[in-house]
Each structure stands twice: as C-alpha cells, then as structure tokens.
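Slack export, channel: ligand-projects

TW: morning all. Re-posting the request from yesterday since it got buried. We need the structure predicted with the small molecule present, not the apo form. The ligand is zinc ion; the SMILES is in the block with the sequence. No rush, but it would help planning for next week.
GE: picking it up
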Amino acid sequence: MQENKPISRVFTSNSVVLPGHDEPVPATVLVDTWTGKITDVRHGLAVRSDYPDADWLDAGDHIILPGLVDAHVHLNEPGRTDWEGFWTGTRAAASGGVTTLIDMPLNSIPPTTTIANLEQKKAAARGQCWTDVGFWGGVIPGNQAHLKSLVEAGVKGFKCFLIESGVEEFPCVAASDLDGAMKELEGTSSVLCFHAELETEHNHPPQRTSADPTLYETFLHSRPQSLETAAIELITRLHAQHPTLRLHIVHLSASDALPLIRAARASGLPLTVETCFHYLTLDATSIPNGHPEFKCCPPIREAPNRDALWDALKKGEIDCVVSDHSPCVAELKKVDVGDVMGAWGGISTLGLGLSLLWTEGKKRGVHIKDIVKWCCEKTAEHAGLQNTKGTIAAGYDADLIVWDPQANVHVTKESLNFKNKLTPYEGLTLQGRVLKTFLRGHLVYDSVEGFRGEPIGQLL
Ligand SMILES: [Zn+2]
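GE: finished. pasting the full token output, ligand included:
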C-alpha cells in the first residue's frame, strides 16, 4: 500500500566505522525507517541525486559509528524514581550516543526478581524511553524458581551480589544459593553476572574507627582488592562445576584479579568481564577529599591499577566497558557534608562515556574502532543482542551516531541530562562530541536542537 511505503534515509560520510576495517572508511548506509533496519552498506560516498526521495545526511568528515550499548545502568524506576527514571536516564544516554541500555535489577522497587516485578518495570518504562531498553533479572536467596520464566520473558541475564548490595530488598547470595541458580540456568543461553566483592574472615579490612570519613583514602582502605580476588576465586571455582553456563564479572576494578580471570578463560570457561569508564579514567590519588561523587563499589584505585586495567582491556582480557550509572539523591550522596564513608556508592556517567573513553584512550593509542568493539560490539554480545545491535551492517537496527572527535565538551551541571546532577566529571573538558543520535533510523538527539520527536525506544 502506498501509505506504508518505506521512507528511506541515507547516511554518507568519509569516516564510517564498519566491521572488518581498522580505520573508519568512506561509506554510505541505507536505512528503511519503516522497519528501522539498515538495508545496505556501500563503500564510497553517495551523491544526493542517487537517492532523490530519501532523507539525506552527509556527515562530511565527521565519524558515523554504531550507537553504544550500555549493558550496566541503574534507572531505579519504579520505587526510587527520585534517584533516576526511564525518561531522564534514557535522554542522558541518547545525548551521549547510547542507543541501547540494559537496566540492572536492583534499586528500583520492586527489584526485577519475578515475572510480576518485571511486568511492573515494563509498565513503568513504556512510553518514556529515548533509547531501546532491555532488562537484567536478579538472583536473590529463594527466587530460583522464577529464573527460567524470567529467561522466557526476555531478561538478558541475571545479576547477583556476593556482598551486601546496599538495598535491603536485594540481598546477597551464598554459595549454596548459587549452586541452585546455576543449575536452573544451565542449558539456557542466559548469563549470570556477579558483583564480585566477598568478605571473608581473612580479607576483612581492620576497622579504623578513628579514621576520617570524609577522606577518600578511608573508603579505599575499607574495600581492598582482596575482596574482589576472594569473590573471583569463588566464582571461578563454581564455574568449573557448571562449565557450560556463561558467567560475567561486572565492574572489575582490581587488577590483582586478572591472573585468576586469565586462568579461568585459558581453561575454556565462558567467563566475560567488564570494567567501567570511571576505573579507566580516574585515579584515587587525584580524588579530592570530601567528595562522595567519586564513591562507588568497588572503588576507584591508584594509577598503576588503572594502567593494568587498560593493558588487560587492550589485550582482550577485559571484554567491554560500561557506565554502571548508579545515581541517588543529593541527601543520600551526602555532598553537603562530604561524608564519603556514609554516602551512597554509585557514579553518575550517562551521556559522558564515549567522550571520557576517547579523551583518556587517545593518550593511550586507542582508536575509535577499539571503543566500538568495547562499547558496542562486545556489550551487545554480552546482552545477547549481537544480531541486531552494536554493528553497522545490513539487517542490523539503524542505531547510528554522528561523532566529532575534535570537538570539546565542557561538563557543567547544565550540560547533564540525568536527574541528579552530581558527577565526578563536573568541570572537566572532554574531547569528542556526539552531534546526532539516531535510534532505528530516527533522529532522537541533536547537539544543537536537543531531543527530537517522541520517545520511540522499544523494550527489548
Ligand atoms: Zn551497578
């Protein structure tokens, strides 16, 4: 029927990041905005007269790359919507070139631990999303009977904690809970993700009751690398008993754990690892005291640790990079009193990740292709979206961003699109700016004109 005829959109640029190329190449991407899919990718530039009926975008020398897939985000709605929400969180994401995000199962009330709770999350999200949104489920003590039905309902995998999570409705699991959960998930294509910090009688850091709670060093001392290595020892031991199940370490901070991860992977276990923008760009010794905006768990560590994480990332021993955007209200972040020990742990990043990684990565010989691998391809694969997201190729969703690698971004409160404008990056000038973000072929964000159209994001 005539009214259903696809309206095509053509993207052409001297620099398109395509699979199989080490550098961006001149190319033309043809999109059917009716289906939201890329229909074809052609090498070389197109001229407008070739496609007289199409909407046309000539990005010139600006780079076209796939939208980012941020596989670790806390949107907190419903229940803690004053911390963050689908509307503000996905707008912040879109402004930074993220076109898909996967929401973590905790900090909303209820947590995503049953089908009924997942339905509540979806109902809260509908009509509010400026990016596509998928959901992780949660493993908590006693919910293992719900796991298979959550897989069937489309959750991308599961998250659990080995140490207290910070919210009472999402308790941590013991090894005995995990054995049952892993048996339930064996044979599925799902993935079980671990917040990998574990206190044991041997690694519990001594209490420093007299220590100043506003010093970053006090907090860093309370969460040593040994908490992460103890957790990862347990995880790899359990993994050997369930060797077909995919396991994943979220937000790795401790480089001391890398040998354990290397050994597990060398033995053939399907274990993947993510780290975060903040562990790669910040350094504990430069963190000002009295600033809980820098607090997250596990903590940001010293520069040599950061260098080791970069090294592992470049070697492929760490698979991907995510935000772990985990905000809260100012009162709980205790910014007025600078109480680092008492503050909520979580860093707000949505919208800044690509510029952060580019600014720091350029000093370390990183190419845009590497960032696409870590933040698009590998994160899509982690969430089971490798056939639709994270790559510019025919048949994939037309999630595309236009990126100016030279332009500066000055981070001010006014420039942030997430709800609570508390971030360790305020005041920084970063390099690389997202000019336009397209979701399924439709413009959703323009750096000059702001958000465009409707929240057309789908629930994945
Ligand atoms: Zn998290």
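GE: first-pass observations. The longest helix spans residues 225-241. The radius of gyration is 22 Å.
TW: perfect, thank you
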